[in-house]
Amino acid sequence: MFFLKRPERKKLLYLFWFSVLLSTLDLRVTIPTPTDSILFVVDVTMSMNSKDMSLDEQGEVSRVFFAKDTLKNSIKALQCGTEVGLGIFAGYQATILFQPIEVCANYSELIESIGYLDTNMIWAGDSEVSKGLYNALILTNELNKSHRLVFITDGHEAPPISPLYRPSFNGDVGAIKGIIFGVGGNKLVPIPKLRDGGVYSGSWKKDDVMQIDPFSAGRRGSDSSESLVNDPSIIVDPQLVYNLQATPGMEHLSEQKTRYLELLASEQDLTYLNLKTVDDLVDGLETLPFSEWRYSEVSTSRYLIILSLIFLLLIFWPLDGTFKYREYSHQY
Predict the structure, then answer these.
(1) Is omega for the bond preceding 159 within 30 degrees of 0, making it cis?
(2) pLDDT at 232
(3) Is pLDDT at 275 greater than 90 in this prediction?
(4) What is the sign, positive or negative, of the torsion defined by CA atoms of 57, 280, 274, 143?
(5) Domains, the chain
(6) Secondary structure element (H or E) that encloses residue 304, with its range
(7) Quick one: pLDDT at residue 296?
(8) How far is the C-alpha of 150 from the C-alpha of 38, rounded, in Å?
(9) pTM of the model
(10) What is the mean pLDDT of the chain?
């Protein structure tokens, strides 16, 4: 049975106070630690102005506002050493605003940059989500294969996509780990129409947007030999049509295209998650494998406190290693 003698307890008491004293000095050491490098790409197309999200303090808000608020609050929960970059998606391309930088040293700049995200930043009126995702994956791979991509979008393709002529991905599937976060409700809502300066001017109407994909409409592409009309002899997989979630006649309305985002995620070996709260984003990020080992400076205080508690426990350990129990006689 393990037991301690009194002289040994005296030594442990000295060690206890010594470790407590060291913990107050906030000594730091440089050691290799697993770190995260995350590139957030946010959809800033016009459907992201649809108001079907809610915040406790502000009530009903737009999807893009909700995404910004959630991003800001999630940055607060990231530990020092984590690197965060920011990009946006519009048209058919993703643009990287800045590469991942350390969160604690650049916290104010990160929060300020996220605050500028807005649909006024778009350079094209279309919203080709799959092409934007593919472009973001390729850009991330070119920047650093260890970066993790977090793509935040409602999944609304405008114009709608053809099941026969889906864009193809020319990169290496699975090379980049990441998450597609879907934002938006599950009911069709109007898409606000905004003038320059973000002035609200009604909602998009049926005649304002394409209700079917350009291929079915017979539009020509840049290649004159390319056939853009669906071949009636080709059999379309009804499950694919279901997952694409096109809504002919109602494309001027918007909802989160959950099934479509799940399809894109599965095809690119990514994870799909529904973004409803800050915890959804923070918990989702924790499921990502860490990016790489980096040398970073860490405080020894918490470890010294744990060590001092162990010394304290040993100090009060029973002398003979056993606990004595008093026997009681019972009279009946």
Answers:
(1) yes
(2) 57
(3) yes
(4) positive
(5) 29-295 (3.40.50.410)
(6) helix 301-315
(7) 67
(8) 7
(9) 0.78
(10) 84
